[in-house]
Amino acid sequence: MTKDENIAEHDFGHVTVLLHEAAESLNLPSGAVAVDCTLGGGGHTRLLLEAVGKNGKVLAFDRDIMAIEHAQKAFAGQIFSGQLLLVHKPFSEMPDHVHKAGLAGSVAGILADLGVSSPQIDLGERGFSFLKDGPLDMRMDTTRPGTAAELVNTAEETELAIIFRDFGEEPMGRHFAKMICRQRLIAPFMTTGELASYVEKHSPYGSKSRKHPATKIFQALRIAVNGELTELDQFLTRAVPLLAPNGRLAIISFHSLEDRAVKRFFAEVSGKLKRQELSRMVAITERELDKMVNAQGRVVLPTPVEPSLQEVEANPRARSAKLRVFEKGC
Ligand SMILES: C[S@@+](CC[C@H](N)C(=O)[O-])C[C@H]1O[C@@H](n2cnc3c(N)ncnc32)[C@H](O)[C@@H]1O
What we know:
The protein is of the alpha/beta class. It has helices at residues 3-12, 19-25, 43-52, 65-74, 76-80, 94-100, 118-122, 148-154, 157-168, 173-186, 192-201, 215-225, 228-239, 256-269, 272-281, 286-293, 309-314; strands at 33-36, 57-61, 84-87, 107-113, 243-253, 297-299, 322-328. Strand 1 (33-36), helix 3 and strand 2 (57-61) form a beta-alpha-beta unit.
């Protein structure tokens, strides 16, 4: 790691996960255009800039204004020279920007390092963590409405139960939704501390559970508040046409809901899903299958790249990361 990389990471307080693995997986040629959908502390962005060189260009998106403001300082030189363009928008809107810039069909690599950055979790005032007391906020983009407190205090009980089940995979989702709705009539939940201790107090799991009982409830609320799975779906659906021939799309996911969505999407665009369907239906040769499937490209590695033991030891937040890479055909 260079001194510059260190400064950018430590200033922001985020240690980039699969730093070199992700940047190298894009196989970026010098002079290329690349997109970083999730700027964060800029660790990956810096490596993309190095890979494309002075004649290349990187477009970096983040919906968190803190990340954009940090990068405006950390990358002042590259912004001034036109090598880096920062965009404060959700990545579902990234394709519109690429189209507007006249770059659709000529992007050599797109990277998305999903989820939250460390300062979002570590700063109590961002309201993401059940371990740090603060306002019950959880918005990555604090310039848009819709905090976690609003959701928790106004959603129907059934809506909360569905959120806890679908986004938290919490088997006791209905129980927690019921308890929360009962309590909010007495006093609305305004802080992360209030919600975390209420969930802990009313948890049917007892004190033996390895994880804090609020873990899944907080994950579910965060995903709902930020529309994370919808964002991912909307971005994936429009990403492949932006790529140049042989261009690559690399995604790092941090939980099974995201990884399942990425895996399924890659199976679809690589023709694997259609291939399985067709080969079950009719007796057909491999060649005929190839023609009918009309794949848009290939999955680069059969299994996802995961962080090494050393990386997880140095940065436990990397432990659930999975990197999947797709390459567009010629
Ligand atoms: C895991 S961090 C990225 C870290 C970054 N790769 C680095 O090297 O520092 C995820 C970042 O993506 C941003 N983010 C998450 N979902 C987003 C979305 N839908 N649109 C734009 N930014 C998003 C978050 O605000 C956060 O800053």
